[in-house]
Amino acid sequence: MRFTLLIASIFIIVFTKQAFLQGGISKADNYFYGLELINASESYQTIFQNHETNDDDRALAGRKLAYISWHFYNDLDKAREYVKKSLELEKYEAYLFKDLIDYEKESKNFEEAKKVYQQAISKLKSDKKLNLVTAAYADMVLNEAFENIKQKQVLDTVILNSAYQKIEIVNKKEPGKLKAA
Q1: DSSP codes joined into one string, 31-76
Q2: Alpha helix locations (H) across 75-109?
């Protein structure tokens, strides 16, 4: 009888804890989408730093922290840090790499974005994941070309052509994957 109560108690504790942790990401998301950024950041931070939380939720929390850091506080270093720590969890890597390419592109760090793309293609194995980061890479190359035109700099037609070829491949594999430039 004692043994049965002990087992039942353990199950209750484990399932209650999981329900609490699942509620944590939902609660953080509610704060985020309600633009309560301080509460969202605190909630995501709690999830991100809790090593007992499942890695999926930790990676998602890290991704949101990176988004908040860059898009609301213009803190690229912090966004990079969250993405890199989230990548260590080996969850949602394609989205994390894509986000980091986008952040580097938006801050006009085109060379850094190219390095992130190289890291992504060396790590990612699935075509769908590669297509996602390749689309972000091609968008970054196009933005770099626009920036070079504005600055009256020489265009790197080799890299533009390479990006174009990559986009054609992505379009054939996954029509509709790309948004219009």
Answers
A1: HHHTT-HHHHHHHHHHHHH-TTS-HHHHHHHHHHHHHHHHHTT--H
A2: 76-87, 93-106
From the list 143, 123, 138, the residue with the least C-alpha distance to 177 is 138
Question: Model pTM?
Answer: 0.80
Tens place of pLDDT for every residue, the chain, 181 residues? 555 544 545 555 544 444 444 468 999 999 999 999 999 999 999 999 999 999 999 999 999 999 999 999 999 999 999 999 999 999 999 999 999 999 999 999 999 999 999 999 999 999 889 999 999 999 999 999 999 899 899 888 888 888 888 888 887 877 765 665 5
Is residue 178 within 8 A of residue 170, CB to CB? The reply is yes
